[in-house]
Design goal:
This protein is mainly α. The protein contains 3 helices and no strands. Helix 2 packs antiparallel against helix 3. The longest helix is centred in the middle third of the chain and has 23 residues.
């Protein structure tokens, strides 16, 4: 089976980062951004073929992630 390149090597690490995010941990947010932002950009760019729109998608997604972190 092919590895899921979107997952952290350790699912426990990913869950821990999400839990820390809920507790307002900006380091956890930064780690999630570092891991996922390039993929989000690539998907958005492949869909839109517009660099600026793809950047806005990344920004909007991560702003929402932070704003809704405690939901």
């Amino acid at each position: 089976a092919m590895a899921n390149t979107l997952s952290f090597p350790d699912e426990k690490e990913e869950r821990a980062l999400l839990e820390r995010l809920r507790q307002d941990d900006t380091d956890a947010f930064n780690a999630l951004y570092a891991h996922y932002s390039r993929h989000v950009f690539t998907v958005a760019y492949n869909y839109s073929r517009d660099v600026q729109m793809a950047r806005e998608v990344v920004q909007d997604l991560f702003v929402q992630l932070w704003e809704r972190r405690q939901v």
